[in-house]
Design brief:
It comes from Parvularcula mediterranea. With 756 residues, the chain is α/β, with parallel strands linked by helices. 44% of the residues lie in helices and 19% in strands.
């Protein structure tokens, strides 16, 4: 595709890749802090899967899942909250270290008897006192759940929905007063304020459930593609501060969490959390949304117990929960399943894995300066890729671009593996591929535009066969220069001098006449598979054997010349019918016009000799000028068509030729005969033609041998033949006279020089 790239100006060739690379770099900077970018997140997923979270000593966790079999055995989802209470009691009885319910229990339980009765009584008549008395004796599922939660370290879920990662964060101002498990780094006392993300919705815990040890956030924020990749350690819902279940498991277990606020505030809510740590453990950095990234280990092995088994046989199945942080949640198609970078998993299992990650203090870090580093790498890699595609062979340039893209990804992977920093390799990859593609697109566009211009420039100049091939794929190779034998035809339609003087009064008619005549002759050249060009003084040139190889190029040129003789009368009729005869002129005067044709064949250079719309296909070489010289001698020698010896040798058995003269093409050249093409082979049978041909042949033989007496006798015979032009007779009469005066020797051929 890049054969013509050296023809492009370097500064123009670099415009499009420079723009592409600059846009990639700018986008890398501007989107660096935007979470949820699909391409970046997909690459980060691959990197973290290739370099999974190391496992040293994992926090003991387990899950109790409400799966489809539990639903079939114990009842359709949703379950009343007393069922959750039963699960919590069973887990505590089994010796769970803590129990965390990852299903939201905020708001009223629609399956609680007291709630059902209250809603029914709202549409019935009756005194308020009677309603209160009736409701006071109905059981409450919240009360059952609260009693179960009061028996041990239990976290209850709130927050059914969180803001997705591509939405703006809604911040809430919270205080840790009365929460011994949390403190703010740098605060002089245990009282302080900090900004945390808000839970969507207005539901909160009932009065009975507020006595629970810790509320936890059941939901997980999703990226635009629906996957869970990050979570905040803390959220706020109305007047409740809720930890993520993974953090809640550790705080219930007695750990104190230290939160470090950012240096600047984001809103009236204050400064958000920039990092946190568990006890004296490692610091976990958070992004601008106060979130950290979910990082899974290589092997995911979280013990799981179906809810129905725990309820039906707690003694047999409870041993799997002993000494572990137990996460209870649904695992149904319509509830409790979330998409992650490693497939769809129960949200309870995801929370359990997050608890293990928080416990070891490991979280990938997306640095603030990452966008600038990625932009710099995009520019550097893009420049290298573009330079390679310009200066090295195409196949090697493709290999270099692919290698640079691979190195960009490999570099990001090695940086993450050694430092835990997440840098996006996609800007470098896009620059490595986009820069060369932009160069290729520029070259291809230039080629297409150039081809369109070229085709337009050659329309009406190349024969149909050549135009069809030029418009086909790869057809521009026809326009490469060639050096081969070319048959050249030079022609002009000459008007009588008297008629030209009349045209001087109305130049427009003269120009229209010449245009009409040339157009007719041009079509004749194209019909005979010739290529059309224009010479001096508005004359036409025809080339055969270029741009397409044509074995019969001499024969086609001669056939075209004979057809042009027939065109003369048609041109006269056409011009007369269009009233382009000239002011005061007549059709008879126009009929006195004559066509002059010269044909020569020999080696020439051929190809386009212009640019763009000013392009033209031309042959360059001695045959071109010699054909023009022959054409100029047409009126002197008589026949309308003059040819060189090469044309005569190729077609002397196919057409009727007359020997006219022997000349030199240049001073040092050898004398050669020139001929007049007068018609088809049937003309040879004419007595008049044979007589004329024999006399002219004998005249030239005597003149060549310097036998002036014989030449004089043959010249006298020539005078007596009708139709012989007087200028031709006068030419040889003058030559013979000069030869006698100068006493020319027989070894001097006296051939006239027609010039190059």
């Amino acid at each position: 595709m890049f054969e013509q790239r050296q023809e492009q100006r370097l500064r123009l060739l670099l415009v499009s890749p420079s723009v592409i690379i600059a846009l990639i770099a700018a986008f890398a900077i501007l989107s660096a802090s935007t979470p949820g970018a699909p391409v970046r997140e997909a690459i980060f997923d691959i990197i973290m899967r290739l370099a999974p979270r190391p496992v040293v000593s994992e926090l003991p966790v387990a899950t109790v899942l409400i799966d489809e079999e539990s639903e079939e055995r114990l009842g359709d989802w949703p379950w009343p909250r007393n069922a959750f209470g039963a699960l919590i009691d069973s887990a505590e009885t089994a010796g769970a270290r803590s129990v965390l319910l990852t299903t939201s229990v905020a708001g009223d339980d629609p399956l609680s008897p007291d709630v059902i009765a209250r809603r029914w009584m709202e549409i019935r008549s009756g005194e308020t006192a009677d309603r209160v008395a009736a409701l006071s004796v109905l059981p409450s599922t919240d009360l059952v759940l609260a009693r179960a939660a009061a028996g041990g370290p239990v976290g209850l879920g709130i927050g059914e929905e969180l803001s997705p990662s591509n939405a703006d964060v809604s911040w809430s101002r919270v205080s840790f007063e009365g929460r011994p498990w949390a403190r703010i780094e740098g605060a002089d006392t245990g009282v302080g304020f900090i900004a945390v993300p808000s839970i969507l919705g207005r539901k909160t815990l009932s009065a009975e459930l507020r006595e629970a040890e810790l509320p936890i956030v059941a939901a997980l924020p999703e990226d635009p593609d629906g996957r869970v990749r990050r979570v905040a350690p803390l959220y706020a819902g109305r007047d409740i501060v809720a930890a993520t279940p993974g953090l809640g498991a550790l705080t219930i277990d007695g750990e104190v969490v230290s939160f470090t606020p950012a240096a600047t505030a984001v809103s009236n809510a204050g400064a958000p959390v920039s990092s946190f740590r568990i006890g004296g453990g490692p610091l976990i950095d958070l992004d601008g949304r106060s979130e950290f990234r979910f990082w899974m280990p290589q092997e995911i092995s979280v013990p799981s117990v179906p809810a129905w088994r725990l309820l039906e046989d707690p003694d047999a199945w409870g041993s799997a929960l002993r000494g572990r942080h137990v996460f209870i949640g649904a695992a149904l198609d319509e509830e409790g399943l979330v998409r992650t970078a490693r497939g769809t998993r129960p949200s309870a299992e995801v929370h359990a894995l997050l608890a293990q990650q928080i416990a070891v203090g490991e979280a990938p870090i997306r640095p603030d300066w990452g966008g600038f580093a990625e932009a710099f790498s995009a520019v550097l890699i893009g420049v290298l890729a573009v330079l390679s595609v310009i200066y090295v062979p195409s196949a090697l340039a493709v290999a270099v671009s692919l290698t640079l893209a691979l190195l960009s990804f490999l570099g990001a992977f090695l940086i993450f593996r050694s430092t835990g920093l997440l840098l996006d390799p996609s800007p470098g990859i896009f620059a490595a591929l986009g820069g060369p593609l932009a160069v290729g697109a520029t070259v291809l566009t230039n080629m297409v535009v150039r081809d369109d211009v070229v085709r337009g420039a050659f329309h009406g100049a190349l024969p149909q066969k050549a135009m069809r091939k030029l418009q086909a794929h790869g057809g521009t190779k026809l326009l490469y220069g060639v050096h081969r034998d070319v048959t050249v035809l030079s022609c002009a339609f000459q008007l009588p001098s008297s008629l030209i003087r009349q045209f001087e009064e109305d130049p427009r008619d003269y120009v229209l006449f010449k245009a009409s005549a040339n157009d007719r002759l041009r079509r004749t050249i194209l019909e005979h598979e010739g290529t059309v060009d224009y010479g001096e003084d508005g004359r036409l040139l025809g080339y055969w054997n270029v741009p397409l190889d044509e074995p019969k190029h001499i024969e086609l040129a001669c056939a075209c010349a004979l057809k042009m003789l027939d065109d003369v009368s048609a041109i006269s009729q056409q011009v007369a019918g269009s009233h382009h005869v000239g002011p005061g002129g007549s059709l008879e005067e126009l009929a006195d016009g004559r066509i002059e044709i010269g044909i020569a064949s020999g080696p020439c250079f051929a190809g386009p000799v212009g640019l763009g719309g000013r392009n033209r296909y031309a042959a360059l070489g001695q045959p071109v000028s010699f054909a023009g010289r022959l054409r100029a001698r047409s009126e002197l020698y008589g026949p309308a068509i003059l040819t060189d010896a090469k044309v005569y040798d190729a077609l002397r058995h196919h057409y009727a030729f007359l020997d006219l003269d022997f000349v030199r093409r240049e001073y040092e050249g050898q004398p050669e005969m020139i001929y007049g093409l007068v018609g088809n082979p049937f003309l040879k049978a004419s007595k008049t033609f044979r007589a004329l041909a024999d006399v002219q042949r004998d005249l030239l033989a005597a003149w060549k041998e310097r036998d002036l007496s014989t030449a004089t006798r043959q010249l006298q015979k020539l005078r007596g033949i009708p139709g012989v032009p007087q200028p031709y007779v006068d030419l040889f009469e003058k030559r013979i006279m000069n030869a006698r005066l100068q006493k020319a020797r027989r070894d001097e051929d006296q051939a006239e020089i027609l010039g190059p």
